[in-house]
Write a structure and sequence with these properties.
Alpha-D-Glucose-1,6-Bisphosphate, Chain A, domain 4; 2 helices; single chain; seven-stranded antiparallel sheet; 27% helix; alpha+beta
Length: 146
């Protein structure tokens, strides 16, 4: 299993950050390569809900199913993403810094499926960190320019 963490400070309140980051209808605006989000079962903010995420990666469509594992509005949520090649558990924590700033902290544990993907996971760690950090910069830009 490969683990990594990323974080960023956004010049918006926790409530403003949470409203955007927890809204699957706006995920395509800040998550790299995300083309489509479809709720499959439950409600988007309901533990156990299932959501399908479709990415375009190097000209190919890659699908992940997300299961919401826990949620505390304006503070924390966690989910499991499952695809043909990997499974990832992710936690996001939001922390107020004063009245108008929020630290977003993400921690992830990714495991490859199959022998080849298990071998590749440690080698892909840096690119996974860079991609998530890029997504956080996208989120910051989107929020701070609204």
């Amino acid at each position: 299993m490969t683990t990594y963490e990323t974080n960023i400070v956004i010049a918006k309140s926790v409530d403003q950050v949470y409203q955007l980051i927890s809204n699957p209808d706006r995920a395509c605006e800040w998550i790299t390569g995300l083309k489509k989000v479809e709720l499959q079962s439950g409600n988007a903010s309901e533990i156990g809900s299932m959501t399908k995420y479709v990415f375009e990666e190097r000209g190919k469509e890659v699908t992940f199913m997300e299961e919401l594992l826990s949620i505390t509005p304006n503070a924390h949520f966690s989910f499991r993403l499952d695809s043909d090649q990997v499974v990832m558990e992710s936690e996001t924590h939001l922390k107020a810094i004063g009245n108008d700033n929020t630290e977003v902290m993400m921690s992830n544990a990714v495991a490859g499926k199959g022998f080849f993907m298990k071998l590749l996971m440690p080698l892909m760690k840096k690119s996974m960190i860079n991609r998530q950090q890029k997504d956080l910069f996208n989120l910051k830009g989107l929020l701070e320019n609204e």
